[in-house]
Amino acid sequence: MAQLLLTARQLLVKLVQWLLMLMLLAMTGVMFAQIIWRYLLQSPLVWSEELALLLMVWMTFLGSALMLERKEHVAIDLLVEWLPPALNRATQIVGALVVLAFNLALTYGALLIVETAKESIMPGLKISSAWQYMGVLIGGGLLVLVSIEALLRALRGAAATQEKRS
């Protein structure tokens, strides 16, 4: 079972990486096309800025989940490294709980916004505005999963520290 979960996790990380690359490529292409149409053909693409914004939101939150998974978010850990091991573990657990609480609140808020925005239509793309906020919801869900994993890792580390002292 653990191997299956690890494989699923690795596949999900690869999927997010590929989605981010494709979204960045699409956003770059759309913005380049917008420049060509606006300045050379004198006929701007009415949907390009909305699509670029939609892709930016998705990239932001999917990228945040990937950064959290890789532990590449900005952190000031100088003080934490100076703490004794037991206090260091406690700090990791509290930090993981705070991050999890924030990500749960973010995801819940995104769910409420998606529900509210599903009736609204983006004028340029002619699709529901919920698609834009769905990036926050899905990215938030991934952030929650990664946060739970980090909390479990911190708790296991705390348990290992307790066993070493016994």
UniProtKB/TrEMBL annotation:
Pfam families: DctQ (PF04290)
Protein's cellular compartments: Cell inner membrane
Membrane topology summary: Multi-pass membrane protein
UniProt keyword Repeat, yes or no: no
Main location group: membrane
Transmembrane segments: 12-39, 51-69, 90-113, 133-155
Record bears the keyword Acetylation: no
GO biological process: C4-dicarboxylate transport
A single GO molecular function term of this UniProt record: transmembrane transporter activity
Keyword entries, A-Z: Cell inner membrane, Cell membrane, Membrane, Transmembrane, Transmembrane helix, Transport
Domain Tripartite ATP-independent periplasmic transporters DctQ component: 27-156
GO CC, alphabetical: plasma membrane
Subunit structure: The complex comprises the extracytoplasmic solute receptor protein and the two transmembrane proteins.
Functional note: Part of the tripartite ATP-independent periplasmic (TRAP) transport system.
Family designation: Belongs to the TRAP transporter small permease family.
Record's protein name: TRAP transporter small permease protein
Highest classification ranks of the organism: Bacteria, Pseudomonadati, Pseudomonadota, Alphaproteobacteria, Hyphomicrobiales
